[in-house]
Amino acid sequence: MKSNTYYNNVYKLISEDFNSGQAHEVIREWRSHNIYVLDIASKLLERIVKNLDLKNCYTGQRLKRLVSIKQKLVKSEGMRLTKMQDIVGVRLVVNDLKELAKVVKLLQDGKILGRNISIVKEFNYIKKPKEDGYRSYHIAFEITNKHRGIEYRRLFELQVRTKSQHAWSTVVETIGTYMGVNFKGGDGEKDWKSFFKESSYIFSWFEKFESGRKYLTIDDAEEVIRGSIRLKEIMLELKITELLVLLNNMTSDISYKLNETSKNDYAIIFIDYIKKESIVRTYPKAASKTVNDLYIRLEEELNYTDQIQVLFVEITNLTNLRKAFPNFYIDVSEFIIILKRYFNRLNDYASNLS
User: Fold this and answer.
1) Same domain, 137 and 33
2) What is the mean pLDDT of residues 222-249?
3) Are 155 and 180 contained in the same domain?
């Protein structure tokens, strides 16, 4: 095992040449040392769901893509490879803010974590959303293991979201992929950023009302109605309704080809948004090295852009995978359903106020 300094110096190679072959090798080597973390994170998710008896929730785990790692090393000041907490990313999507609060409290209590897992940092993007409107609760964990007397530390990040927050995030990523714009990274035109921010604002207000955290006053209703008017104007100008319908129709056109799967397999997913094709291949955990080698080869051979992606994930079943990562499947149906529901309620409020 090489030193952390060896891996952390990769940012210099990326800064000089974003497509440095040497940098790719270093990043992939470090990423391969984190594969076992997928299993540990998956078991933690299972314990959370069982302990709180969560119903109709979504879970998912994935390894961060090479291009995403490189972008983060370049854009995040002071970022180093061994300090990147989301090389392994896990996701838990719950029904509402009440369930989300229970999950956070359970994890903060620490008893469910086990002896070798600890929380190192928390990011409350619900209390303080990101500039683009992103809302979620992130928790970074550290895993400590010993091998032949040497202590190893690995990080992973858990995103806890409500279904409303998840639907919004999915639309940002899906539209970004479809248009070839990295909205998550801050790119994109002002009108599109306004659409994402205004829709997040509307979603946020209704989540608070529906969870009983805030009672709707006349002032609240008027403010939200004004926000919805701005949102509808932006949607009309950008023809967003038509785009959402187009994307939703594309979902049914994607073909899924998969071999037989069993619980807790690894999967390689190849997604071509241009050809509207998604191929899933699953493998037993005993074949982790083979799967990682295949993942590396595909990344090299495909020379993909954001519109052609290959992903390494751990799954409990394919249905759960699709719900946890709907952006991989161009699935914006949940966002459309929620947006329609909120607009209908706003129309009712407006009628009562008039």
Assistant:
1) yes
2) 85
3) no
**Cβ–Cβ contacts within 10 Å for residue 81, how many?**
23
Q: How many domains does the chain have?
A: 3
- How far apart are the C-alpha atoms of 259 and 281, rounded to whole Å? 6
Regarding beta strands 137-147 and 117-124, do their DSSP bridges make them parallel or antiparallel, or are they unpaired? antiparallel
Range of the domain at 129: 4-162
| Amino acid letter, residue 154 | R
What is the residue-averaged pLDDT of the chain?
A: 82
Q: Report the alpha-carbon distance of residue 350 to residue 338 in Å, rounded.
A: 18
Q: Looking at 162, 191, 217, which one is the last position of a domain? A: 162
Identify which of 15, 13, 36, 37 has the alpha carbon closest to the alpha carbon of residue 25. 13
pLDDT single digits (tens) 115-146: 899 999 999 999 999 999 999 999 999 999 87
Query: 57 and 12, same structural domain?
Result: yes
Task: Quick: pLDDT tens for 193-234.
Answer: 999 999 999 899 888 877 665 566 667 777 778 888 888 899
Contact 276, 250 (CB under 8 A): yes
Q: Say yes or no: 198 and 347 in one domain.
A: yes
Residues 33 and 149 in one domain: yes
| Residue 338 near residue 164 (C-beta atoms within 8 A) | yes
Examine the domain organization and report whether 54 and 200 are in the same domain.
no
Q: Are residues 130 and 74 in the same domain?
A: yes
- Do 13 and 116 sit in the same domain of this protein? yes
Q: Which of 124, 141, 162 is the last residue of a domain?
A: 162
